[in-house]
Amino acid sequence: MHWHAYTWTGAGEERGWEPERRPDSPEFPSSPLPPMLTGDWLAKPRSRIAATFTELQPALEWLSARYERARAGFPRPDGIGADLRLAAARDVLPRGVDVQWGEWLRDGRFVTIGMICCPNRHVRHPCPLGRSAYPDPR
Fold first, then answer.
1. Could you tell me the residue range of the domain that residue 54 belongs to?
2. What does the pLDDT read at residue 131?
């Protein structure tokens, strides 16, 4: 298993454009919006991948860095906090569970930070980098 990192920041109201967030929609591949299901990030073009990781610690460091950047725009303190978020990610990512954090920012914007397992237990999309780069262990 490996992980692909994804992020999106935009007007929060755009998250309501659900058809663009579903892979059966013709707009899905070109839409910058995050998908409704975390695993469907893998059906987006490979250009949407922010980073790919084969080791857990660098994946956690990426999540932490993206979270810290986003936190500056939070309109109020995060009730969960970085330590708890990272501890949960450390626990679930090796077990094949996606991590997706979403938070409101000032001025009605929203940020999504995700680390998506590949292969994915919830969807059957092929690896966006091609199976030859990362063989499917199933």
1. 2-118
2. 53
In a domain? residue 75: yes
Q: Is 25 within the bounds of a domain?
A: yes
Domain annotation covers residue 124: no
Say how far apart CA 80 and CA 93 lie, in whole Å. Answer: 18
Neighbours of 68 (CB within 10 A): 10
Residue 107 belongs to a domain: yes
pTM of structure: 0.90
SS3 content of the chain, % helix, strand, coil (to 5): 35, 20, 40
Q: Find, among 67, 49, 56, the residue nearest to 89 by Cα.
A: 56
Judge whether 115 and 30 are in contact, CB under 8 Å.
no
Q: Which amino acid type is present at position 15?
A: R
pLDDT tens-digit profile of 87-136? 999 999 999 999 999 999 999 999 999 999 999 999 999 999 985 444 44
